Amino acid sequence: MIEWAKQHRSKQLLFLVLAGYFLFGIHYFSPNSGGFGLYLPFNIVGWIFIALIIGLGCWRIYHTGEVQLTRPFSYSLLAFILLCLPLFYPNNHLSGWTHHRILGLLGGLLFYLSLLQFKLSKQERYYLFYLILCGVLIESILGFSQYYLFSHDNWMGYDIKSNFPSGIFQQKNVMAIFMVTGCAISLFLINNDQESIHSHIKLFLLMSIPFFASLLIAAIKSKASFLGYLLFLLSAIFTTDIKQRKIQLWITLSMIGFFLGFLRPISLERNFPERSLKASMESNSARIIFYKNSFNLFLDNPLLGNGYGSFRRKYREIDALRLSNDPDSNVKDFSEILDHPHNEILLWAAEGGVLPVIGLLIIAGSYMIMIFRIKLKRSLSYLSLALPILLSTQVSLPFSQSLTHWITFLSIIYLTDIEMGKSFNYNLIFHRLAIIPGIIIPLIVTIYMMQTLQTAKIFHQYETTGLRDHNLLFKAKRPEAWKMKYENYKLKALFDHGMRTSDKATLQLFLDESEQFLQFAPFIHLYKSMETALLAIGEIDKANAIRKRAEYMYPTQYALIYGDGQ
């Protein structure tokens, strides 16, 4: 039993903020057009909670006069430095587009460091796991409602025709991995928390997760989630006593959940789509192409990479080359820009070269060394917690789309580190100065994120006008938080104004800025707008040249979408 009244105020506040995050913060929704990172409102709100935790960590250092570190954290800090070094390479002219990714890494590292300052007892560590499970349960209930109950005109804009429950994450694979992680944590707690049998709330939480989560895993039909479920179960089975009634009940509820998730009730007037074998095979083929092309980008410049922020353009170029050499490819050209290769290592390798890869391997290696220093069965038990999200980083992009997955993963690594690793305390002479970042970081992040929320709402209003009321763009307080969309919308505003007024100066400004934007993301619609603008100012030869560039970048799609030219 945890005696909260006897804990230091900083630890009380830590768990209060963690509870606020997992019970409320990760479930925040406001209308949006989807995407990743700060395009999703729950990520914006989430960073406010994380900044508060970082502030509490600084307060803890201020109070104790010492900083607590562990070996895995030290290696993670070294890895972060290696991940940042490509920012100083000579090919980093697009790195400004990746600052949020780097800041997200730094924020995660500071979150980890802050947690290390609180010496949590075993029951306190389990309490953090229960908070994560509360978040999983709330999301599973939301997903269950989406799957069975949501109507066509629902408050989340959920697509009941495709009907793949995605929860707050708005992406089914990310939702599925969160559910698998919840299953892994619940089984771990059943095996390890002996006090759970004395609490009806804990037992309800532990037994409801395998039912609801398994139902949604079956409904979503994500191959990564099925594999993640199998891997964590195989890892945890060695420390699981199947003869225990609570384990048998957990397995039974999980099996019932899978059965109901695969079932298609005729009595419910719902669309329960099946993913065809052909669609699955096409998805696998496309994924293999992503990996192959991204690895080839790394091989093009393994030492320095292609530069942070270059992936979208470089991938489009290498895919265009593939299609020009192999027009009968099984995976045809498509008009969307690939933002991510669906593999974290390949993204950092393609853009940053070998140093970021070494950094990631250092993190993975330090964790594996730490976890396998103890008995194998116990090691596998802790490894089972991290496996689902770890697997998804190699076949998807959970950290780009969900802060929740990033924080959950770090919490699992932290709890494993505290349980198994060795900590080192360092006395600080100027520890009183820690109160300065303890105040400044939460203040700056909160203000920034509140302004980003305002920007998100303004951009959603702009999108609901059909991208016509350009005056709304001037009201956005943090347009740089939505940099790619903002620059794209700004170009549209210039194009519309130039075409409406026949102002050659405005159209030339549009063309100049579009050329810069194409260095980052060669969107197909931007080529068409440039072609139209050049024709409008009488630059026919340049318009034809732009069309040729577009047809090279999109061999099968440009003419199909925009016709054979004028």
State mean pLDDT (0 to 100 scale).
91
Helix share of residues? 55-70%
Contiguous low-pLDDT stretches (5 residues minimum) are: none
**Strand/helix succession:** HHEHHHHHHHHHHHHHHEHHHHHH
Can you tell me the overall shape?
A: globular
Q: How many β-strand stretches?
A: 2
Work out the helix count. Answer: 22
Roughly what fraction of the amino acids lie in strands? Answer: under 5%
Strand arrangement in the largest pleated sheet? 1-2
The Rg value, from CA coordinates, equals: 25 Å
Q: Biggest sheet, open or closed, and with what strands and sense?
A: 2 strands, antiparallel
Distance between the termini: 76 Å
Q: Please identify the structural class as seen in this structure.
A: mainly alpha
Key structural traits:
single chain; 566 residues; mainly alpha; Serine Threonine Protein Phosphatase 5, Tetratricopeptide repeat; two-stranded antiparallel sheet; 22 helices
Commentary on this structure:
This protein is mostly helical. Among the domains are: 121-275 and 372-423, no CATH class; 278-325; 465-562, Alpha Horseshoe (Serine Threonine Protein Phosphatase 5, Tetratricopeptide repeat). It is built from 22 helices and 2 strands. The protein has a two-stranded antiparallel ribbon with strand order 1-2. Helix 5 (122-148) runs antiparallel to helix 16, helix 6 (172-192) packs antiparallel against helix 14 and helix 20 packs antiparallel against helix 21. It starts with 8 loop residues before the first helix and ends with a helix. The mean pLDDT is 91.
